[in-house]
Amino acid sequence: MKTFGLIGYRLGYSFSKGFFTDKFEKEGLTDYEYVNFELDSISEFPEIFKKNNHIAGLNCTIPYKQQIMSYLDEIDEEAKQVGAINTVKVIRTGEQVQLKGFNTDIYGFENSLMPMLTEKHKKALILGTGGASKAIKHILNKNGISYLSASIEEELADQEIRYEQIDESVLKEHLIIINATPLGTFPKVDTCPSIPYESITADHVLFDLVYNPEQTLFLKKGHEQGAATKNGLEMLHLQAIKAWEIWNS
């Protein structure tokens, strides 16, 4: 039996578990399984290898994407730059187990967002400054797109503004708007980031990392203003496919 799994805190419904279980069934991989490993603390991480010697690859989600890094033997260069891990490759040599960390969110986000952009999309507004924004900032930098981040923290870092500073002039300048907050996620579907949606135009691209519901209130409000919109489902599919490639390479 080959075991793949997801490291997290309280996982509930897991996209990864559903995706890979379905994939294994469709491809007739009867000796493969995908397991959710709920950890109360990242210090419990080494224990899963003691209890299961068939682990062949892992995904990692919040709140452990950064904490897991100190438990790895090697980290991919791009993941190191981002400072977050969501995929762990398990390399076995006899009894020896080595762990290498990757960030496939980078691949998923880039290949989902970039096809939506044109020459006029030079600046982005990122809503949220949490862990999810790390891969976003990396890709925007990589593609020469400048950005501002909207923050609710007391102290603002460089390139950060407060939500109340987002006005028509900010939106006119930033034609890419990315929701990197959990606002709007099921079951709290009647919430969305507080921005002046009436200032959004048909030139805007709105990207929401949330994928459940399919159309969040954030995307609905943007769509009503004529903006191009996309949720985070394609990004999740792409990052999962990339993780599968890494595990099997």
TrEMBL record:
Cellular component terms per the entry's GO annotation: cytosol
Official protein name in the record: Shikimate dehydrogenase
Record CDD domains: NAD_bind_Shikimate_DH
UniProt keyword annotation of Disulfide bond present: no
Transmembrane segments: none
Keywords on record: Amino-acid biosynthesis, Aromatic amino acid biosynthesis, Oxidoreductase
Residue ranges of domain Shikimate dehydrogenase substrate binding N-terminal in the record: 6-88
Lineage: Bacteria, Pseudomonadati, Bacteroidota, Bacteroidia, Marinilabiliales
Source organism superkingdom: Bacteria
Pathway assigned to this chain's UniProt record: Metabolic intermediate biosynthesis; chorismate biosynthesis; chorismate from D-erythrose 4-phosphate and phosphoenolpyruvate: step 4/7
Alphabetical list of Pfam families matching this protein: Shikimate_dh_N
Gene Ontology MF terms: NADP binding; shikimate 3-dehydrogenase (NADP+) activity
GO biological process assignments: aromatic amino acid family biosynthetic process; chorismate biosynthetic process; shikimate metabolic process
Repeat as UniProt keyword: no
